[in-house]
Design a protein that fits this description.
Elements (H helix, E strand, L loop, with lengths): L8 E2 L9 H4 L3 H5 L5 H16 L4 E5 L6 H13 L4 H13 L1 H13 L3 E6 L6 H15 L10 H15 L1 H13 L4 H9 L3 H14 L13 H12 L6 E6 L2 H6 L3 H20 L4 E8 L12 H11 L3 E4 L4 H11 E2 L2 H9 L1 H10 L3 H4 L4 H10 L6 H14 L6 H6 L6 H6 L9 H13 L4 H16 L3 H16 L9 H8 L3 H13 L3 E4 L4 E4 L7 H10 L7 H8 L4 E2 L2 H7 L5 E6 L1 H5 L4 H7 L4 E6 L7 H11 L4 E6 L5 H18 L1 H6 L3 H24 L6 E5 L5 E3 L4 H15 L18 H15 L13 H11 L12 H16 L5 E2 H9 L10 H10 L4 E6 L2 E3 L3 H9 L4 E6 L3 H14 L2 H6 L3 H18 L2 H5 L15 H13 L7 H13 L8 H34 L8 H10 L3 H4 L1 E2 L2 H11 L6 H13 L10 H17 L12 E7 L2 E7 L6 H17 L5 H16 L2
Parallel strand pairs: 2-5, 2-6, 3-4, 4-5, 11-12, 12-13, 20-22
Antiparallel strand pairs: 1-7, 8-9, 10-11, 13-14, 14-15, 16-19, 17-18, 17-19, 21-22
Helix pairs in contact: 3-4, 3-6, 5-6, 7-12, 8-9, 12-14, 14-15, 21-24, 21-26, 24-25, 24-26, 25-26, 26-27, 29-35, 31-38, 35-37, 39-40, 39-43, 41-42, 41-43, 43-44, 45-47, 45-51, 47-50, 49-50, 49-51, 51-55, 51-56, 54-55
Keywords: Coiled coil
InterPro entries: P-loop_NTPase (IPR027417)
Organism: Eubacterium ventriosum
């Protein structure tokens, strides 16, 4: 056979990746473009954006090496130059794939002006500056610099030139200063021309030193968005239709950006995107080029960067560069040029022929190609690569490729490991998958963020050090590549696929694979049915595992260990569940025989394991007595228990697997160990999966009926051994158990509500139904519609017949309603725990799911003729959906009491409503369950509105012959009545039917008592409402008497008359506070309202209002008032001060204040006040003159004396 190099030619136009900045004018790159359906679809979208003036800010996303940059190079060429020969040839190539796209290109060339291309590379730290530099570079390349406005850098260069020409001395000083910065003038000006920010900042520092402090402020445009807008408008007169910006390698820019300035740069991008989207006639387009979206980075990017990018992301349309697998294979076909006839000797070689034919059966090829297409595109087109080698090349390059290493560089670059290099070196064998591994292995090593790929490389790299032949190396590399691709649905890593990837004949492959297995380099993963690496990477894992096992206790809690790992979890009795439209389940429980035998009641098991039935799998650590198990099962006598007695002992090998599993789990939690042996984590996790799989295989053999390795026992038909052919027959038996034990369960066809725990959304819907029932609203709104509450209402109340309550009632639901009625009957006149009801509804015969119970309880409560009261322990609570939900969760905490109704009670309640309820509240009252609560709340509100004196006095103020007097027995009843309402939280029923009758009536038994209670409450309310008014009247009469007036005279006139008769000296005398306050009040008295006068006098004389009086407050007031009157009257008129009396006179302007006062004996408080005043005066020192200090003191004294 010839060598490949004799007849294969590689099209080298593909050897280098596209660099938009460097290749924008490279016509040969344009010429090498090969249109595919996928790329033309994307190109067509960009052309539409230009024609329809839309989506002008977008991001093109696609893996490395797929031709994104090449496509954009073509787009820019088409938008900028449509007349060159190469461009025309490109259009002709496009036309062969899509005539419609070619027509759009021609339309643009004939009707749309060219676009100025601007390439952003993202290499500058300041993105605003980079946009400006890129624009200037594009203007320079296209001879448009006269369009560019002056920049700060250009202005700085102008100033330097002016100094050099007109100000020689300044220029010489400038040269000297620049040298201090380590630069010559030429170097410094060069940096300004290159727009180096540091050079501009230095110039700004220098400028004031040379211009008498003048700052450098050229007033030029330095904002990228503003600059692009201005230049875009100016370009119209130069024949341009707009600007097209490409931000190349945007992913690298994101990945390498510093967090500190990222938010600022995102604001720049946001502005540019808005400028583009808002541009009209002169369009601006911007396209970002990325290999994945920001969301696909996961934790590789900080949350700050992701959040900052969101403002930009919302302004971008995402365009996916999706290249079909078939197109990719066609690209390979275009690159590798040869005559098919020259390839036939390789196709006819027996092993090659077998491998090519078998490869077509793999899903990645059979699902994509017809057999004819496969032969043309894969077998012939990708020659000299094996089919799986081409597959691996495409998939690996998509995962790890960069510009420097991609599918194209592999095919066309003449470098070590590339296709052209292999061909040129005289290869004669078809290329197997190991060549892909060899070419990209450095990328695998460096791709630390791609965990799966890097870990597989680590394992393969270690495995290669143990390989003893090229065949073993081929197998290792092929396995590594297939695991990196990780598409088991396309190419599972099984023995057949590995061989097809290596190209080895069967004998050599089997021999080499067995050697790798014997050396513990590769292992077969039983759970997944694939081969994987068993890498130890510097540590003997078996020894490490054995060390961990040796540290474990001799005896483990085997039943718990098994339960933790077992995948035998629940069994659903399908027939029963289907018939009853609900989900019941049996739970697998693992117990050793001793544990089962020590269980005295089955209830204990169901308290621990929440399920409808239990399948108890006995873990036999030694031989046992099956008869003993049967006898104990008979004693427990619970049909819900199924006991499985295995024939096989849970022996050393089974125990050892669990010990290994525990050792693996401990190693996986050992951070130090994993840090030292990073690659082992994945192997340990794989080993853990396999151990769990193997343990469960043994459990299924021991406890499932298919292998007939166990005995089944149950008490449904006597304790006999049961035989089951398979899981189906066993499942039917579980349904029989449910039919027997839960015979009367309700059939409610809605599993969202007919379950133990309902979701928050369903609970909300249930609440709507319950509240509507309790408030006696119209329920027809639930009869139609698709809302959750409508479907639940129909399932629980309509379709079950409960709403109508006729013969159409579903049997199970009818029985539940009957049980609720029985419970309600037990609650007549006494509190009974809801736990009694729930025990019945959740227990044998019913097994009702909690989700539906609150609806049925609400339905029955609202139908009662009597009044239901619900207690939370000893506190009455309002009946609502919330309370019924709480009962559903903790029925043991809640009680029901039914208050029997009677004619006497009804009259009693009506009188109370008339006495205490407002008309508005009566109208709002929706249900009778709120009635008692509303009455007591209104009574409590009335009680709290009364004055403190009325609520607390215990001694009558009035004599028998006075208005406001209450008979002693009635007074005692009033005091007892008040005590009822002293509490903060009251139980309405107890208040109305127990506590008030007991407080008011001696004989409070029987309903007849309520007539008497009603009369007494009317009297008590009237008395308490008028008590304060009467007290004020009596006090007013007493005040008149003290001041010598009759009861029918005016209180105001009486006081004023007395005041007018007092001496002037008494009026200007300084008394105690209450006397001074009294005189001042009388002096200024203007009102005739005796209630108001009495209230003010009580406050002035005793310091407390009449509303807050206590038992002795009246006597104290009379005594104090008499003393005040006598004291004032004792002050006689005299020019001279009496003995021991002082006089003070203050004259300010025309006003004179004279006051007499008694010298007070000194005490500690007086001293404290005097010292405080002196300290304050001293603190101000010389800041106030003596006259100012005296003035302040006199003003204060004047204000004090005027009170």
């Amino acid at each position: 056979m010839n060598k490949f190099k004799d007849f294969i030619e590689i099209d080298k136009k593909f050897q280098n990746s596209i660099n938009l900045q460097l290749d924008i004018d490279n016509l040969s790159k344009l010429n090498s473009y090969i249109p595919t359906h996928s790329s033309i679809l994307v190109l067509d979208g960009f052309l539409n954006n230009v024609l329809s003036d839309r989506d002008k800010a977008n991001i093109l996303i696609g893996p490395y090496g797929k031709g994104k940059s090449h496509l954009l190079l073509v787009l820019l060429a088409l938008l900028n130059d449509g007349k060159g020969d190469i461009t025309k040839r490109t259009i002709n190539k496009i036309e062969k794939v899509s005539k419609e796209t070619a027509e759009k290109i021609k339309t643009i060339q004939s009707s749309v002006k060219p676009f100025l291309p601007v390439i952003i590379s993202g290499t500058e730290k300041d993105l605003n500056k980079e946009f400006i530099i890129a624009l200037m570079e594009s203007l320079r390349k296209n001879n448009l610099m006269n369009v560019a406005p002056e920049s700060d850098y250009g202005k700085a260069l102008e100033v330097i030139a002016k100094w050099q020409k007109d100000f020689k001395q300044v220029y010489e000083s400038f040269k000297q200063i620049v040298r201090e910065y380590g630069r010559t003038v030429e170097e410094f000006m060069g940096e300004l021309k290159e727009m180096k920010e540091e050079a501009l900042n230095i110039f700004k520092e220098i400028h004031p030193k040379l211009t008498a402090g003048s700052e450098f402020m050229p007033m030029t445009v330095n904002n990228a968005m503003t600059l692009y807008g201005e230049i875009n408008r100016a370009l119209e007169s130069y024949g341009y239709g707009g600007i097209y910006i490409i931000f190349d390698e945007f992913s690298k820019y994101i990945e390498g950006h510093e967090k500190d300035t990222f938010a600022y740069d995102m604001k720049i991008l946001q502005d540019i995107c808005e400028l583009a989207n808002n541009s009209k006639k002169q369009q601006i387009h911007i396209t970002f080029v990325a290999h994945k979206s920001i969301k696909e980075y996961g934790n590789a990017l900080s949350s700050d960067i992701v959040n900052a990018f969101k403002g930009v992301e919302g302004r971008l349309k995402e365009v996916r560069f999706v290249v079909s697998a078939q197109n990719n294979y066609e690209l390979i076909q275009h690159v590798i040029k040869k005559k098919v006839s020259d390839c036939k000797p390789w196709f006819q070689e027996q092993n090659n022929k077998e491998i090519i034919e078998e490869s077509y059966k793999i899903p990645c090829f059979s699902g994509l190609f017809t057999e004819k297409e496969y032969k043309k595109i894969i077998m012939e087109g990708c020659f000299p690569m094996l089919p799986l080698t081409a597959y691996a090349l495409l998939n690996i390059s998509e995962k790890v490729a960069q510009n420097e290493r991609s599918i194209f560089t592999f095919l066309a670059n003449d470098e070590k490991g590339s296709l052209i290099n292999i061909v040129e070196n005289g290869s004669e064998e078809l290329l197997s998958v190991d060549v892909v591994y060899d070419y990209f292995q450095n990328m695998f090593r460096d791709s630390i963020s791609l965990t799966n790929i890097h870990n597989e490389w680590l394992k393969a790299d270690y495995a290669l050090t143990k390989a003893e032949s090229l065949n073993e190396e081929k197998i290792i590399k092929a396995m590594a590549i297939l695991h990196m691709i990780n598409r088991n649905e396309e190419v599972p890593v099984r023995k057949t696929e590995i061989r097809l990837a290596t190209g080895l004949n069967m004998a050599d492959f089997v021999s080499s694979l067995e050697k790798l297995e014997s050396k513990n380099i590769v292992t077969y993963r039983s759970k997944l049915g694939v081969f994987a690496f068993k890498n130890n990477v510097g540590v003997n894992l078996d020894n490490q595992m054995n060390n961990m096992i040796e540290k474990q206790p001799l005896s483990l809690n085997w039943q718990e260990e098994i339960a933790t790992v077992s995948e035998l979890d629940y069994v659903l009795p399908k027939k029963y569940n289907q018939e009853y439209t609900m989900t019941r389940y049996f739970k697998y429980v693992y117990m050793i025989p001793e544990q089962f035998l020590n269980t005295s009641k089955s209830e204990y098991l169901f308290e621990t394991y929440k399920a409808d039935g239990l399948i108890i799998c006995l873990v036999m650590l030694k031989d046992g007595d099956v008869n003993q198990i049967k006898e104990h099962l008979k004693e427990l006598n619970d049909n819900r228990l199924v006991v499985i007695y295995p024939d096989k002992i849970f022996g050393f090998s089974e125990q050892q697997n669990i010990r290994k599993l525990k050792a693996v789990e401990k190693l996986l939690k050992d951070k130090d160990f994993l840090e030292e042996n990073k690659v082992l984590q994945q192997e340990l996790e794989i080993y853990k999966e396999d151990l769990i799989f193997e343990i469960n295989v043994e459990l299924e053999k021991s406890y499932l009926p298919e292998d007939s390795r166990c005995k089944y026992f149950n008490t449904l038909n006597g304790v006999t051994e049961l035989c089951f052919e398979n899981q189906i027959s066993f499942n039917r038996f579980l349904s029989e158990i449910c039919l027997s034990y839960y015979e009367h369960a309700p059939k409610i066809n809605n599993e969202l509500i007919n379950r133990k725990s309902v979701s928050a959304q369903i609970k909300k819907a249930r609440n709507l139904i319950i509240d509507a029932i309790l408030n006696e609203e119209e329920l027809d709104r639930f009869e139609k519609g698709t809302s959750s509450e409508a479907t639940i209402f129909r399932a629980t109340l309509m379709h079950t017949g409960i709403l109508k309550g006729d013969s159409s009632e579903e049997e199970g639901c009818r029985r539940i309603i009957e049980e609720i009625d029985v419970f309600v009957g037990q609650c007549a006149g006494k509190k009974v725990s809801f736990q009694v009801l729930y025990n019945k509804l959740l227990g044998k015969d019913f097994g009702t799911r909690k989700g539906v119970i609150p609806i049925f309880i609400a339905k029955e409560i609202i139908n009662l003729q009597d009044t239901p009261i619900i207690y939370l322990q000893n506190k009455e609570v309002e009946i609502s959906s919330s309370i019924l939900n709480n009962i559903n969760e903790k029925p043991q905490d809640y009680y029901l009491f039914i208050e029997k109704e009677s004619i006497e009670k009804e009259k009693y309640l009506k009188v109370l409503e008339e006495l205490f309820l407002s008309e508005e509240l009566r109208k709002k009252q929706k249900s009778k369950m709120q009635r008692l609560n509303n009455i007591v709340e209104s009574m409590q509100r009335w009680y709290r509105s009364l004055d403190q004196y009325t609520l607390t006095f215990t001694k009558q103020l009035f004599e028998e012959n006075e208005q406001g007097y209450l008979e002693e027995d009635a007074f005692e009843r009033m005091c007892s009545f008040r005590k009822v309402f002293k509490g903060i939280e009251l139980n309405p029923r107890e208040v109305l039917f127990e506590k008030m009758p007991k407080a008011i009536c001696d004989d409070n038994s029987g309903d007849a008592v309520f007539e008497n209670v009603t009369l007494q409450i009317e009297e008590i309310k009237k008395y308490m409402d008028n008590n304060l008014v009467n007290a004020k009247k009596k006090t007013a009469v007493q005040v008149k008497s003290i001041f010598g007036a009759r009861a029918d005279e005016s209180l105001s006139a009486c006081l004023k008359n007395w005041y007018s008769k007092q001496s002037e000296k008494s009026k200007s005398h300084i008394y105690a506070e209450n006397i001074t306050g009294f005189m001042t009040y009388i002096e200024k008295l203007t009102t005739n309202d005796e209630d108001e006068i009495v209230s003010r006098l009580c406050k002035i004389i005793t310091g407390i209002y009449i509303n807050d009086w206590k038992n002795d407050s009246y006597e104290r007031f009379v005594e104090e008032l008499t003393y005040v009157k006598n004291t004032i009257q004792s002050i006689k008129e005299s020019e001279q001060s009496t003995e021991g009396e002082n006089k003070i006179s203050i004259k300010t302007g025309e006003n004179t204040i004279e006051r007499f006062f008694e010298p007070d004996s000194d005490d500690s408080t007086s001293y404290f006040l005097q010292n405080a005043i002196e300290d304050a005066l001293e603190e101000f020192g010389d800041t106030l003159e003596l006259n100012q200090k005296v003035s302040v003191l006199v003003k204060a004294l004047e204000e004090l004396l005027s009170k």
